[in-house]
Design goal:
Distance between the termini: 30 Å
Strand content: 15-25%
Largest sheet: 6 strands, mixed
Radius of gyration: 19 Å
Order of helices and strands: EHEHEHEHEHHEHEEHEHEE
CATH superfamily of the largest domain: Response regulator
Helix content: 25-40%
CATH topology of the largest domain: Rossmann fold
Mean pLDDT: 85
Number of domains: 2
Number of strands: 11
Number of helices: 9
Structural class: alpha/beta
């Protein structure tokens, strides 16, 4: 199960919910809002896979926290999970601002956490982050680049369309950018020690399989890699790009 940060507005209730989630195997960091201190805590909580924000109390505060998390690049692509307010009207006010967030109840939260997926082209209120750029631009492909491919599916090169001048694909040697297509959790853990030495590195996984974003991020972090962008490559594949911390 992923590691989540719980944002609640009542200390007693927050601790009770965190304890119940921990009993279900969820790793929880529980905090209570206190204005600017909350925002500082959110930014300084590494290793978080998702944010769970309660709208049961002070829903306008929950909305502002979600907006803040989308504005900060380091948290922009992490799932926002809202516990719905007893008032559908108040929940709708948040939903209208963050339509790609997940809205659920405490009873359904466990199932939601089991099926987390990365946020692709997240909506940032006040900023249009949706892009109609060609896929090759989203993936960072430029002229005269050497691009390494490991386990690329059939048709991947054709999917990219007309490539920048001088770009060429290789399957070994030194490359400016690598794509690694992972098909199982076993492959991820077995090959990460080798593939993790390549940077920048797109780690790509098939949607709807046992390979999930949280396990990819943890495996990459253990290799000293940090992520900075996620992209939907096709109906079948998603990818997240990593680089060494020193780069």
């Amino acid at each position: 199960m992923p590691r989540v940060l719980l944002v609640h507005w009542n200390k007693v209730e927050a601790n009770e919910r965190a304890m119940l989630l921990n009993q279900e195997g969820v790793s929880v960091v529980a905090i209570v809002s206190s204005g600017g201190d909350t925002m500082k805590t959110l930014k300084q909580s590494p290793g978080i896979d998702a944010f769970v924000i309660s709208l049961e109390r002070m829903p306008s505060h929950g909305r502002e926290v979600g907006k803040f998390l989308r504005e900060v690049k380091s948290t922009r692509y992490l799932p926002l999970i809202y516990i719905e307010s007893p008032s559908e009207e108040k929940t709708s006010l948040v939903r209208n601002v963050l339509p790609d967030a997940i809205f659920t109840s405490w009873a359904r939260l466990g199932d939601v956490l089991k099926t987390l997926s990365p946020v692709v082209d997240p909506i940032v209120p006040g900023l249009n982050v949706a892009s109609d750029k060609p896929l090759q631009n989203k993936l960072g492909l430029i002229a005269n680049m050497r691009v390494g491919l490991a386990g690329a599916p059939d048709g991947f090169e054709e999917l990219l369309g007309d490539l920048p001048e001088g770009l060429r694909f290789i399957d070994r040697g030194k490359a400016d950018l690598w794509f690694w297509f992972v098909r199982s959790s076993e492959e991820l853990h077995t090959e990460m020690g080798y593939m993790g030495l390549r940077s920048p590195l797109w780690i790509c996984w098939m949607k709807g399989t046992s390979v999930k974003l949280p396990m990819i991020r943890r495996a990459a972090n253990e290799m000293g890699l940090v992520d900075y962008k996620v992209c939907s490559i096709s109906d079948t594949w998603s990818g997240m790009i990593f680089k060494l911390k020193s780069q």
